[in-house]
Give the backbone structure.
Amino acid sequence: MPSRRCPAPALAALALVLLVPALAVAAPIRLWHAYRDDEAKALGAIVAAFQGEEVELLAVPFDAYASKLQAAVPMGEGPDLFIDAHERLGDYRARKIVAPVGDALEAGGEAVFQGPALAAVRQGGEIFGLPISQKCMALYMNTALVEEAPAYLEDIAALAGALPQGVYPLAYEASNAYAHMPILAAFGGAMLDENDQFGFVGPGPERSLELVRSLIARRVVPEDANGALVTDLFNAGRAAFVISGPWFVGGLKDEAKRRSRVVPLPRVRETGRPMRPFMTVEAVMLSPQGAQRAEARALARHLAGAAAAATRLEVARTPPVRSDVAVPADDAFIAAFTEQAKVAIPMPTSPAMRSTWEPSARAIRKVLRGDAPPDVALSEAKHRFDDVRRPLPPPASPAPLLVALGALALVLVLRWVSAAKGAVRGPTLRQSLPAYKYVAHAVVAVGVLVIVPLVIGAATSLFAGSGESLRYVGLANFISILTARGEPLFSSGSFYLVLAVTVLWTAVNLFFHVLLGVSLALLLHRPTLRLRALYRVLLIVPWAVPSYVTALSWKGMFHRQFGAVTGLIEAVNAAFGTSIEPIAWFSSFTTAFTANVTTNVWLGFPFMMVVTLGALTAVPDEVLEAAEVDGASRWQRLWKITLPLIRPVLAPAVTLGAIWTFNMFNVVFLVSGGDPDGTTDILVSEAYRWAFTREAQYGYAAAYSVLIFLLLTLATRASGWRRRTPASTIPQGGGAADGSAPAPVAATEAV
């Protein structure tokens, strides 16, 4: 009679079949967001009220949010749902990291969402997100200075002579393209037209810039104002009105909050049209894998529901997007933003929108500073936009690359075989195995952290496009860079002009680093100097403070109206009766470059000082004393003995300093930001712009990085070749070991 026992493999298969669905059901729903503070608290409360599967919340920093989604979702490691702004939908769709919401939208839900919120997340007839909040700019009033909301922008300008001295009628980031949009819309303009072409050009946009320039000239609006300055002015009671969004409240002090009131933006009397800001709709979006899970769609429906909207309204003061959520009648703050959203313009979702910000901001700054008339500045901006949006290079055959890699591999194998002929083997090799074990982890670490990223970066430079448009283009990116993209070789933004600025930047900084570092080290090395330890600590502080903190501090000091440098100029004028004008540091290349160099010298000289101090401790005192006895002056002792002896230590420090300065991104990006008109950008900041502000052209940016690597490699190798003494000049007598005078004695004899 056959046995009825189930074989072990069959039991294992049956257990696997039963276990896999159970594990799939038990997997938590992953939800990513970039909220902080009250918004994060509101989201936590909403998720806690969800009656369903376990939810795994992950807060991702806003600056890295899009890049992490783009990297994780295609690999299946990303979230099931994520909360993001609607304007990124075009890019997300192209990369296939977002899916239609399907039945996550409740029955009859389209009629619930008010204003243009749902239209903002609709593309190609499908809905790719459930709106949960909408944010736009409105007008903040300082009720201690003004009592009535203005009907026209010109009414605010008329307050220039009626307010106390030092108080601005209106404060906003005038040079910011996003903040300029309300005025641009009042003149019938747009950043991007319906054909994805640059829309910030023509009579309307030109008139909008002329209006803002006149407001700055009449001191209605502060010049070069950023978000922090606008907040400080309102907190100090030096701004009657502010144009900003709901996020502005987070930076206000309690007193400023009590005297603030929010109303919709006024009209522009010249056109009769209202000021219409951009509107950002935050929506719950489903990744492709999340769209297949019913519980993920249920969570999306819950996050966009009426109860969730009420929680956000109560906890985070977020204006609701649903018509079935009542706004308290006495809540003027929410009512004002809700009313403003009705006429706001949803930001375009096309990937082309990302290419409008940089050229638009540059054009606005040029006009407001008087560097160019509006028509010329906007024409240049359109040319820059068209240059970034030019078609991708045609695909190339990978055959030449494969042949080159094969030849390189063959050469490396032949060299390895040739080198291995005389290598140790047998018992000697076995005795060396422990040594290989000691260095194996270092080899792996360097390979994973250094070699692999270099190889991947070099490979990326041979591709162009992203998502479905990604293609192998060979050396097309390098050819485009080295031919200045068909423009004159030293045209604005070309590789050669930026390289010249980078070399000048490196040389000037290195000169002052070495000069100040060595000079201060010689001063601090004197034994008769009192409080030497205190001075050393104080002079190392600039090096210890994070570079981005220092850069932002110096940028604030260089502000034309409110900076510390302007304060010193005003103090000098008051003390000596002079009439020195404040310097517009970022309006010309010379002053902007000087501001960058000053900041970087402050950051860099302590390193050279510390290295020199260490080298000076190795200089023999008896040699210096012997030179002094022989009648050598202090300058001769420095030039003939000290400097030659510390030169071997300074040489690698100077090389490191040159490499760091060549790639000093923080200072250039944070202090001048490339102003004016990108002329102070260096190679690494130009590579950054191609990667992150010009439609994520990573292949082109990687080509820039490869060229930077090759330039630095050749420069360091060339300096090594120059320092290498030719064989014909080496003394046959040798050094101290074979009877010649040692270096200190030789230096003394030279004196």
